[in-house]
Specification:
Distance between the termini: 47 Å
Shape: globular
Number of strands: 13
CATH topology: Rossmann fold
């Protein structure tokens, strides 16, 4: 299979490695020289192409493909930057392949479970209506429509994967929970290796065409319980806890951050499990093992 990974960054690099190991022909796409270097370090068989999704003219450098994965990042910018990448940029990629004689069979778009908004700790799945509450998640929801509807108009199946909170090497964020204070609510997570694994599985199993898949591990966990588990595992004092009202009363949160603090939901991965995906890290307990081991080694 020929796969082009547009936005071959945190998850994309892991995906490129997994696909190359499985014998697929992979091209990673980044917009910076440093990004190209990172792609080239993955595997000697992975090609690196420099292009910017916000520059439609540069996308002519993308090779033909059987599948395209859109995992680009807006680089932590605001809503305008997010729209330029996720909505306009994704549309540019679709239009580029529409203009060719040979278009990919499918596009997989990496979205976020943030589009669900707050469900007061209740369960959500692929059939739950989305209710994005921040400018960023509203942009992500619009990009989902591009992935499914604009792709369909171009004769390409569009699959949306809604990822829970990504963690893994360089993104364990231990100090956030060890130092506290920690507010209540549920954490929905997926390790980097499984985030990449989910996309690889959907491509190789030829599954979920034109649909939505929630990518979260088996155990949504209360933040207080997670912080206490992490502190115990690391051998440090459990962090202080803080109510949502107390956190908001500090006055240092933006309106978007306030909505995130108030929000809580539990993401079901039943559909993903039904599609046959087997997690490397089914819960945070195995996913954080390396981070805990490294933390304890530093303190020894």
């Amino acid at each position: 299979m020929r796969v082009v990974v547009v936005g071959c960054g945190y998850v994309g690099l892991a995906l490129a490695s997994q696909l190359a190991d499985s014998g697929h022909r992979v091209t990673g796409v980044r917009r910076s020289a440093a990004g190209l270097t990172a792609i080239e370090a993955v595997d000697e068989t992975v090609d690196a192409v420099r292009a910017d999704v916000t520059d439609a003219d540069s996308l002519g450098r993308l090779p033909d493909a059987d599948a395209v994965v859109f995992a680009a990042s807006s680089g932590g910018g605001g809503a305008a930057a997010a729209r330029a990448v996720y909505v306009t940029g994704l549309g540019n990629v679709v239009d580029e392949y529409r203009s060719r004689g040979s278009s990919p069979d499918r596009i997989v778009y990496a979205s976020s479970t943030g589009v669900y908004g707050d469900h007061d700790g209740g369960w959500v799945d692929e059939n739950t209506p989305i209710e994005p509450t921040t400018e960023k998640t509203q942009v992500l929801a619009e990009a989902e429509r591009v992935a499914r509807e604009q792709s369909a108009d171009a004769g390409i199946d569009g699959t949306v994967v809604r990822f829970a909170g990504l963690y893994g090497p360089n993104r364990y964020r231990l100090r956030r929970y060890l130092d506290g204070p920690v507010t209540p609510g549920y954490l929905n997570m997926v390790h980097r290796v499984d985030a990449a694994g989910v996309i690889r599985h959907l491509l190789e199993a030829d599954a979920a065409h034109g649909g939505v898949v929630v990518a979260a591990d088996d155990e949504p966990v209360d933040k207080h319980a997670f912080a206490d588990w992490l502190a115990d595992a690391c051998g440090v004092e459990r962090p202080a806890k803080q109510s949502v009202a107390e956190r908001i009363a500090t006055g240092d949160l933006s309106s978007a951050a306030k909505r995130r603090v108030r929000g809580s939901k539990r993401c079901s991965n039943a559909r993903l499990r039904g599609l046959g995906y087997e997690f490397v890290h089914p819960t945070f307990r195995s996913g954080y093992r390396d981070a805990v081991r490294a933390f304890r080694a530093e303190r020894a």
